[in-house]
Design goal:
The structure is a homodimer. Chain A is of the alpha/beta class. Chain A has 14 helices and 8 strands. Chain A has an 8-stranded parallel sheet. Chains A and B meet through helix 7, helix 9 and helix 11 of A and helix 7, helix 9 and helix 11 of B.
Amino acid sequence: MSLDKPLIIDCHGHYTTAPAPLTNFREAQVAHFKDPLKPAPDGVVVSDDEIRETIEKNQLKLLKERGADMTIFSPRASVMGPHIGDEGISRRWTIESNNIIKRVVDLFPETFIGVCQLPQSPGVSLQGSIEELQRCVDMGFVGCNLNPDPSGGHFNAPPLYDRYWYPFYEKMIELDVPAMVHVSGSCNPAFHATGAYYINADTTAFMQFIEGDLFKDFPELRLIIPHGGGAVPYHWGRYRGLADMLKKPNLRDHVMKNVYFDTCVYHQPGIDLLFKVIDNKNILFGSEMVGAVRGIDPETGFYFDDTKRYVDNLLISASDKYNVFEGNARRVYPRLDTALKARGR
Amino acid sequence: MSLDKPLIIDCHGHYTTAPAPLTNFREAQVAHFKDPLKPAPDGVVVSDDEIRETIEKNQLKLLKERGADMTIFSPRASVMGPHIGDEGISRRWTIESNNIIKRVVDLFPETFIGVCQLPQSPGVSLQGSIEELQRCVDMGFVGCNLNPDPSGGHFNAPPLYDRYWYPFYEKMIELDVPAMVHVSGSCNPAFHATGAYYINADTTAFMQFIEGDLFKDFPELRLIIPHGGGAVPYHWGRYRGLADMLKKPNLRDHVMKNVYFDTCVYHQPGIDLLFKVIDNKNILFGSEMVGAVRGIDPETGFYFDDTKRYVDNLLISASDKYNVFEGNARRVYPRLDTALKARGR
């Protein structure tokens, strides 16, 4: 580690630019599920060159331009689609999605490390997700994206403190991996995916953590709430007050030993607030790049999702910046730390 | 008007302390609906003294302590419960709830002015709400609380830009009253009411306004998104970027000529952010008092929901403070302005 020149680790990147054969597979898979007379797809046939091109022209290019070093990389969140088809469909799609992440990591081992999608499906047990997590960790993945609402916008899964989720948490702890709490696309017309559904799910998850006593049962569990923690930092007083009304310990002890927020907040005042109210030990650099908001901010002339700029602008110490860019990620993802150390970083 | 000493108008107060006969009526009404063998309640019998006591010991006391002058007052939001029973149940309950607000206003005409609940019910037309709005405006009410999710947490109503809502918007414009977009209690275990459901509904409503073109069709429509606009100010860059991606005009023209946020954000950094990113012409002082978060903030020694303190602390001009405390409310609620002028204010 170097305090002065930390590794810049983006904890939140999705393979939003995956090559067409992956998308084609998914479309054929869903079409076959809806109408078994339509042909089932065989698998995803894609060359290393195709993968290389999608990465070099997008994520890798932007990482370099922005001065970041690596990305904790997972399948495209908006198409995880656990509500589509059934558990078998979800599992097959998840395996293909994770396998292509593994190929990206193998092609760019210095730059990407994998986080897996899970074969969740509404109403079914998490046994399949436990197995897929094991399979992916065996391939070198360092975490997972856990979907708190596999229904795609009905929010009818048990709250995250419910025992329904416990077997999966036990597996996470056994493997020493964290989860990012991340929903997928919305099938509810009330919720725009990246503008409402994602943010609502983040806010909802945090409030569930306040309501429950999850971290009493799992003091080692580590969960990342993306998109800057949804509405939570902006309403930090409300959450502190609600914890008090619900006779819970203060948030520092009750939730914030186990929960982390990323920096996917696309303007300077939002990032300023995040760092003002949340301890920097609970903040991981992330950009959701190439992601939800792709344009250039006319007020600044820079990409909305170039979140490194906002963090660079903060008047915080070098050691605080080290935490946010590198140290916290190494602590929250111990398998990342191990991989980096093996490379002498 | 006086720039130096504005009226302090709280745009967001609920009758959370209503006397027991109102609650008893509701309980008996719901019990009778579920089991018609149980007796139907006759009505709400409550004396002026009982009403006076609930107000003097709570809202009025706190208003005076905090130096505010009046409250735009509506029935308790969390028990509007449009998902309970059917439309007839909702209508009867709504009439009782609004009538007791009218009595509060009659008892304390200098301090309270009414905003009504609506007899919404999942899946039914808004005709009953149109009639109740007319009835309440005839009684001197100056606005309404419009529930974007009458299901109580399933978010299965059409988005707010859908033509389903248009007849109601037409009535609002005819009567020149605004609506606060406000859900009720949550029947979805995923959503804590004040910690997740309210904030999610606020965020969702704003994103729906971005997605649609509602204000092209209704340039005079005025809607208040409570709780500081949900997650919106914190993610202002995301929303500016999404409007751009959706090929919409910039938010100032597309949404912010018609949409207002209140100051129900329970800590100083949140209020600071709100005023940093949102034009103060779009901000109305509100406290949600006596409301969602009732305790004292151990970090400040003052009530979390004493939001006037946070606004007082802002380094903004006297004319900006006038807007937020008085001017904007008079502009957004013209019937309030008329009532104040009739009193020589």
